[in-house]
Design goal:
Blueprint: H1 5-14, H2 21-43, H3 73-77, E1 83-84, E2 87-88
Antiparallel strand pairs: 1-2
Length: about 100
């Protein structure tokens, strides 16, 4: 499949882009080459190939869920510019 200059002009109009005639020729050539590469990829037989998210097999390291910094509220609130009743106090932003 090849891209025509008319298609590039139409897409540029839809995208509200102002491009010169030289740019139109450049984009026509570049997009035609890209679509040619996509056609080559489409021709590759992929029957029996399972979908994958990575090229190599990976495992996600997992850790045990456990509380590590429990009951340190007073120490954390000591760094706050303003605290009230065990909570951070911040300026009201919605009236």
């Amino acid at each position: 499949m090849s891209i025509t200059e008319q298609t590039i002009r139409h897409v540029a109009t839809l995208a509200r882009l102002q491009i010169s005639d030289a740019e139109i020729q450049t984009y026509t050539d570049q997009l035609s080459r890209i679509l040619g590469l996509m056609e080559q990829l489409r021709a590759i037989p992929t029957d029996g190939v399972a979908p994958m998210s990575h090229a190599v097999e990976m495992s996600i390291p997992e850790r045990e869920d456990r509380v590590e910094n429990g009951d340190r509220r007073d120490a954390m609130l000591a760094n706050a510019p303003d605290a009230e009743e065990g909570c951070f106090r911040v300026p009201k932003i919605i009236e």
